[in-house]
Design goal:
Number of domains: 1
Structural class: alpha/beta
Order of helices and strands: EHEHHHEEEHEHEEEHEHHH
Distance between the termini: 41 Å
Radius of gyration: 19 Å
Strand content: 5-15%
């Protein structure tokens, strides 16, 4: 890609990490750690977090979530490229009594703000109603993007369940394999749907064989804190696909609508029967039965 002075980033660490490699000398403009449902909601919360959060940097992060200190039309209008990921879309959304919608983000917990909020309802990504709530928000976000000249680069997330040191796993620092697999199911649905909703968008190829945790990541090991080789492999595979004309055949019009409907019907089915049952019905997942039986989970109401 041509040298860029700046780029937009909407999502979590994975988007920032990819941006450092894809646009190494460009300024990053971020909308950070927000679920799409709360991102698209324009109403600011009446809760004054500045009374309780004295660290200026922390307060600014939280302000994006509570005070909606951004303009989406302006944000997408001023960038040629915006990288997005949907990791925060597997986080709960909180409906406050003042009519605002926020993301149940870690900083709310770290700064002891959750008990102070006047919560009306909480919707988790595993709820049966979540696919359609998310889809409505995603369509609004896609409409804003489609009215700009912005090109969206979707960074796919392949959550990993272990920390790998080259060819060895540290089994003392594994994440629950079943939980990780369910995250991957939901993320795949969201990434694919959004790709078809946004006219000028690319979704980078998934390269799970390179999805290894970076134990030296600035925020520590995490299920999507990858080593740099993961991003280089994605970009390399993307370049091969571009050269081969793969993206010239992106569905549009009725074909795109049909693809979206099929993806959403599948996601609704998975949510309706419970992700535990759905996971075991998908190909290649039978090995997880030996790790955690589905009967031990009630994912319809969320995962702790």
């Amino acid at each position: 890609m041509a040298l860029q002075k700046s780029f937009g980033a909407v999502g979590a660490c994975v988007t920032r990490d990819l941006g450092k490699i894809l646009f190494p000398n460009a300024k990053r403009d971020s909308l950070w750690r927000l679920n799409t449902i709360s991102l698209i909601d324009a109403k600011s919360s009446e809760f004054d977090h500045y009374k309780y959060v004295k660290n200026e940097k922390e307060a600014l992060f939280i302000a994006q979530n509570l005070k909606k200190t951004y303009d989406l039309v302006e944000f997408f209008g001023k960038h040629k490229y915006v990288i997005v990921d949907f990791f925060r879309d597997i986080y709960d959304v909180i409906y406050l009594s003042d009519g605002s919608i926020i993301t149940k983000e870690l900083r709310l917990t770290m700064n002891n703000l959750l008990p102070l909020l006047n919560v009306k309802d909480v919707i988790g990504a595993y709820a049966k109603s979540y696919p359609d709530i998310w889809f409505d928000a995603a369509k609004k976000l896609a409409s804003t993007i489609n009215n700009s000249d912005c090109i969206v680069i979707i960074c796919p997330i392949y959550c990993v369940s272990g920390i790998r040191y080259e060819e060895k796993f540290d089994n003392t620092k594994n994440w629950d394999a079943f939980y990780v697999r369910v995250c991957n199911i939901i993320l795949n649905r969201m990434q694919s749907v959004f790709y078809h909703l946004v006219g000028k968008s690319f979704i980078l190829p998934q390269v799970p064989q390179f999805a290894e945790c970076d134990v030296d990541h600035e925020y520590g090991p995490g299920i999507m804190h990858y080593r740099k080789q993961y991003f280089h492999a994605m970009i390399r595979e993307f370049s091969v696909n571009i050269a081969g004309g793969f993206y010239e055949y992106k569905p549009t019009g009725a074909r795109a609508d049909a693809a979206i409907n099929k993806l959403m019907d599948t996601w609704r089915w998975e949510a309706s029967i419970g992700y535990g049952t759905a996971a075991h019905k998908l190909d290649g997942l039978h090995e997880l039965q030996a790790i955690q039986p589905e009967e031990t989970y009630d994912l319809s109401v969320g995962y702790p």
